[in-house]
Amino acid sequence: MVDAVEADCFWIGMREQTDPFFAVIEPRSALWQLALPSIAEPLHLPGAQLMEWGGAQRWWITDTDPQTVCISAKQAGGHATIFRAGSAYDRNAGVFTPLPAPLMKMLAA
């Protein structure tokens, strides 16, 4: 059993991203938020990972290229979003997982 005060501190740290996990972003890395089915297998990718919401929300700090992150999330049945990036991270790839062409065309209309 976890003490109520300790549990509150933990969940506030997750919500406000003040937990030590979120403070480890290097200049060339990014904090990604992956939304995946809770039954998705763990992703074996480089960097630090934190799972919450029963595995449905996963935080990943990595310097892996954005395309690899997005493809990995898609293959697991979800999507990825850059939540925060280091000062030297290449932001040219965009923040969100690219949408399929038919959906992008519909949204652009």
Number of domains: 1
Count of alpha/pi helices = 3
User: What percent of residues adopt helix (DSSP H or I)?
Assistant: 25-40%
Please outline the major beta sheet: 4 strands, antiparallel
Q: Multimeric state of these chains?
A: single chain
Q: Which residues sit in consecutive blocks of at least 5 with pLDDT less than 50?
A: none
Q: For the terminal residues, how far apart are their CA atoms?
A: 53 Å
Description:
With 109 residues, the protein is α+β, with helices and mostly antiparallel strands. It has one domain (4-108). Helices cover 28% and strands 22% of the residues. The protein is built from 3 helices and 4 strands. It has helices spanning 4-16, 66-75, 101-108; strands spanning 30-35, 48-52, 57-62, 79-85. A 4-stranded antiparallel β-sheet has the order 2-3-1-4, covered by helices on one side. The longest helix has 13 residues, at 4-16. It is globular, with a radius of gyration of 15 Å.
